Amino acid sequence: MAFSTRNGEMLWKQPRKVQVGWSTPLLFQSQLITTSSEATIAYDPRTGKELWRGPGVANTSVPSLVAGHGLVFVSAGYPQKKIIALKTGAGAGQVAWQYDKGPGYVPSPILYGDYLYVISDRGLITCFDARTGKVAYEGGRPPVPATFSSSPVAFNGKLFITSEDADTYVIQAGPEHKVLRTNALGEPVFASIAIGDGALFLRGARNLYCIRASQ
Question: What global pTM score does this model have?
Fold first, then answer.
């Protein structure tokens, strides 16, 4: 459903014949893209009209979608692992490439530059060439075994992944896996890092932290 931000009036409603889908819809190239176990469907956000549809992940759809380079990436990590790159322009909905390893149940993938990164629930990273699906590396490990519920973020040529044990690992972006630094927070973290105004914001189990570079 779409609502007016001015008065709350419902503008359109579109029934969906899907059953399992937990991921957040994505606005990309004037398309509202949703995914589920059964199908990935793009709608016109102004009218709710279906624009195209492609395959779903055929698993429990939890990770959020990411998009770029004319592709939208949908993934699932339970019960089987799968990531699918679907075209959004010419041939919209067609599979550009697919890989059946890598994603976690909860963490979402991230597209940064030319590379797509997926992270498992144990923090293992798989890096793909986003356009072709060629694997740059697979099974990049954090220094300490852990469980990950938060999704990776990226800026300044680095990826940041935070475990439930509150260790944030700074990973070199690009086709080579390299852990640059580990930062410990001291309380459980399940939420993804937010970036804004030159700072990192982390929500722990008891506190909200703002981390800035020293002056």
Answer: 0.94
- Backbone region of residue 205 per phi and psi (left: phi > 0; alpha: psi in -120 to 50; beta: other values): alpha
Q: What is the CA radius of gyration of the chain?
A: 18
Q: Is residue 213 pLDDT above 90, yes or no? A: no
Residues in the chain: 215
In sequence order, the 6+-apart residues with CB closer than 8 A to the CB of 9 are 3
> Cα(39)–Cα(105) distance, rounded to whole angstroms?
18
Cα–Cα distance measured from residue 2 to residue 44, given in angstroms and rounded to the nearest whole number = 11
Pairing between β-strand 110-112 and β-strand 115-119 as defined by DSSP bridges:
antiparallel
As beta bridge partners, residue 169 has 161, 182
Q: How many CB atoms lie within 10 A of CB 96?
A: 19
**β-sheet bridge partners, residue 182:** 169
